[in-house]
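Incident log, structure service

09:12 report received: a user says their structure output differs between two submissions of the same chain.
09:20 pulled the input from the user's history:
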Amino acid sequence: MQFALLALNAAGLPEDDPLWKKAQVFLHRCQNVNFSIPLNIEGENFTVTPFNTQGGYDGGFIYHPGRSLAGGQKSYGSMTGAGIWGLLLCGVKPEDKRVRVAVNWIKEHYTWDGNPGMSDPTSLLFYYYLSMSKALTMLGIKDINGHDWYKELYQQLNSTQKSEGYWVNTNSWGMENIPEYTTACAILSLQTRAPAPTLKLSYLTFILKSHALLKVVDPNGRSIGYNYETHIARNELPNAIYSGPFSEP
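09:34 re-ran on a clean worker, output below:
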């Protein structure tokens, strides 16, 4: 669901589309909370109640209403990151109670050594890196309990990268024993630590903090960045923005 919402955000689905409110219904029922939320969907007022009635209201998220991959209705890391990510894409503000209690769960379970909440912390580990780093980036959080989370995530991934350059999990759950998948998750997790200076949370931003020259080419051969033939920066990508040296006048 989080990736579907990301795609819809990138595609420009209007903020007032009922889909965003309907998605919040599902997300609320996946969160371990004991409070209800009011929603107005297509002119009708609803009170959305939490699905979990068994206790354990710690603010974290589970896979879907009534089922957690960590067992029972136990909150765990990768889904809590996904839940925050989903709420923000649906237009829920960081100061909203749903987001605040989820952030509290992160503070109480902060670690990059494993997927917190899972009985085997190596389960879905790279998925956890991706979902949690994306959620924290969207929130604009740089510090958790006095820890620079991005620096510590970088150190964790740097220490587990293979000499050939890839990452892989010894735990095969979620296909994480396939290095092409886990490497992609690791790279996306390392992409950036700050919110992109754009209007959409789904936009891709490259920030090159060095004297190197950057050129990005899309699948259609269009490029943005330094042109090695003209020796100036060019922008052939629709809706893309380039800022840096060698810009065209």
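09:41 both user submissions now match this output. Likely a transient worker issue. Closing.
09:42 reviewer note: Residues 125-139 form the longest helix (15 residues). The CA atoms of residues 94 and 139 lie 7 Å apart.
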